[in-house]
Amino acid sequence: MRAGDASRGGRQSRTAGARVACLVVVCVVGGGLSPGARSPSTLPRAIRDPFGATPAGAHVTAEPKRVVALFWDGPDFPSYPGIKSGLIEGLRSMPPGSLQYYEEYLESERFHRPSYPQALATYLREKYADRRIDLVLCITATPLTFLLQQDTLFPDADIVFSSSRLPPQGWRSPRMTGVVHTPSYGETLSLAFRLHPGARRAYVITATPERDRRLETDARNQVTRMGLEQPITYWTDRPVAEIVNDVKQLSADSLVLLGRQSEDLRGAALLPQDILDQVTNASPVPVYSTASHALGRGVVGGYVLTNEAYGTMVGDIAERVLNGSPPSAIPIAVPRTAPMFDARQLKRWGISDDRLPPGSAVLFGEVSVWQEHRRLIVSALSIVILESALVAALLVHRARRRRVEAALRASEARYRGVVETQTELICRCRPDTTLTFVNDAYCRFWQRRREDLVGTKFLELIPPARRDEVLQRISSIVESHAEVSHEHEVLLPGGEIGWQHWINHPLFDARGQVVEIQATGRDVTKRKRAEEALRETGEALRVSYERVEDLAGRLIAAQEAERKRIARDLHDDLSQKLALLSIDIDQIPARRPSELRDRVRDISCRAAEIATYVHRLAYELHPSKLESLGLVAALNSVCRDISRQHQVQVEFDHERIPDNVAPDIALCLYRIVQEALHNVVRHSGAQKAQVALRSNEGMLELHVADPGAGFAAADQARGGIGLVSMRERVNFVGGQIVIHSAPGAGTRIGVRVPIVRQSAAAVSLPKALLGA
Predict the structure, then answer these.
(1) Whole-angstrom distance, CA of residue 685 vs CA of residue 694
(2) Could you tell me if residue 387 is inside a domain?
(3) For residue 513, what are the contacts with CB-CB under 8 A and spacing of at least 6?
């Protein structure tokens, strides 16, 4: 019982004979549209012209739909938990991951500064600047008014609202739909007068943030439509303390309807349930309400729309809009209320259930022990019966098991002597692999006592990766009742992996069920290791032979291609230049003295050009700069030549490169850079590349990268002669190479080699590879 119930009970006894009551009605729809606050011409563009942007529901990206729910009051407003649960139920059909849901609270009754709405709009605009909002849910009319009064706030979003009345005609838009629910003041008043025949008057308490008396207007209109003849007094926009004081003075022949009021005129923000408790505690007469959250807090009841049903209707409409239905095609929903009552208040005011309207819901009624705890009682009885059956079954099973164990012990005594003298490993185990018997040979092999083995699971002697396989074989024995022979790995006493061969025989009970498995085994580790060594040796020889054959073929092809290129260059370029030079020399005697000097100068230029060409060809065959100027100068030269000849910007960076780099190490790095840059020119299509050389703890680290086309992992595995030559060069000098590439992601080559080779390689690199 809440505080104040006892005092109300005393007042009830004093007024029971009067057969009159006082009625209080509670309104829950907050805020209202103010048509004069903003003209339709200044509405946001997306609301005035819904076809100027992408229509709602058009699938343009794979991004999830984003929904912002604007609530009028704070999160602790009593009706919001029910509305939110209804919203979730209405949106439940949206696929997982397709919806992002946000909540915002205006709290306009707590913050009264004139600049607060604009400041809040600026905050929301900045908060959601990087997110396209597809739908805005305006819970009550105040958030809808706020949204329509703010320019550029969610301009591309559709609107689903819930309000106590339709928005003014000038504010409506094809991108707007929702739920309109006006509390059933008239029906609730009419019902209260029928339930309390001695009542002669009623008092209606209402208040709105705008002080526009619109809730009073709604109540008056509904009272007129209902044709009520009793006088109605409206207490609108009055301080809470005055209302509570007047309620205390009400006569027994009055009725009061408490409308929505969550703020005192003095500016104190109060929760509706706080005001409700004050009024119901002070009232000497019944209190009625149209708010579902008021039930259970001292009100008798009324025509109510539950918050969950209200939220579900809004969520259903939102789900249709998010799935592509235009708001203009969705009619505005008008929910129906239903009579709901508090059984404790009905009893207090002497109202029997047969006087209630058909279909009334009566809450908080007293129930019998069976009705209240029916499921618990049934569950307890079921558990008792089930436990009794289990105990009986366990007793029967225990007796049978004892008989089977006696038979097994007798059988074991008969052949124990024979088994113990065997040199092979012999054991018995249950289907869960628990050992029940092991012979001396089994103990000697595992170097453990019989007491330490019996009672443990032999599965622990098997590597974890192979245990599932062994369990499957044990299961097959139990299911098929057949003898099974198999080999599996074991963990030897020294921690190494060994192999054993086992023959398993199932042992049955009197019903033909497998109760144990007897196994005879032997160690086959040496044979398995010999077979594995032979297999690995043969596979290695086969792979090595195939690789040598493949590499030899590639080297021969590359050598022939290089010879063909050199021959073509000599024939197409050098031979023609020499022929032209020879012709010019033959024509010298025929020239006049005045032309002789110019002709000799031309012949000298041609000879210099031929010499330059021969020098470049010789440099490609073997870089003389590498020996004369060193590794850094040679790499800088090849990077500069590639940049100049092929319009590829090559950046070369080096740091702490010593002068004592071994010649074969320097040649290896030079050839890798040369081959990598040629691949950039020929295959990658990149306009730039990077070459970096560093010295780090006695090692040289080379990095070559380009942002070009790259190649697939399968192509890298096969590898062309260029990639093969890079790997072989690095392996020859005792280094490491890593190649990373993917289609469209460029290529990166990393090489790490010693500055000075520690020892000569066992085999020398083919001359064709060194000179490629």
Answers:
(1) 27
(2) no
(3) none
* Cα→Cα distances 26→191, 213, 280, Å: 15, 15, 11
How far lies 44's CA from each of 150, 167, 358, 405, 474, in Å? 7, 15, 47, 88, 74
- Residue 753 pairs in a beta bridge with 700
Q: What is the DSSP letter of 384?
A: H
Residue 403 domain flag = no
Q: Transcribe 463-502 into DSSP letters.
A: -HHHHHHHHHHHHHHHHH---EEEEEEEE-TTS-EEEEEE
Spans in the chain with pLDDT lower than 50: 1-60, 759-772
Assess whether 556 and 427 both reside in one domain.
Answer: no
pLDDT at site 52:
33
Predicted local confidence at residue 533, as pLDDT: 85
Contact, 271 vs 219, CB < 8 A? no
> Rounded to a whole number, what is the distance in angstroms from the first to the last CA of the chain?
98
From 603, 621, 639, the end of a domain falls on 621
Number of folded domains that form the chain: 5
In a domain, 749, yes or no: yes
500 beta partners: 488, 523
Both 607 and 680 in a single domain? no
pLDDT, tens digit (0-9, with 9 covering 90-100), for 44-76: 333 333 323 334 444 445 688 999 999 988 888
Distance of CA 550 to the CA centre of its chain: 47
C-alpha span between 738 and 375 (Å, rounded): 69
pTM beyond 0.85: the answer is no
**Cα 56 to Cα 70: distance, rounded to the nearest angstrom:** 19
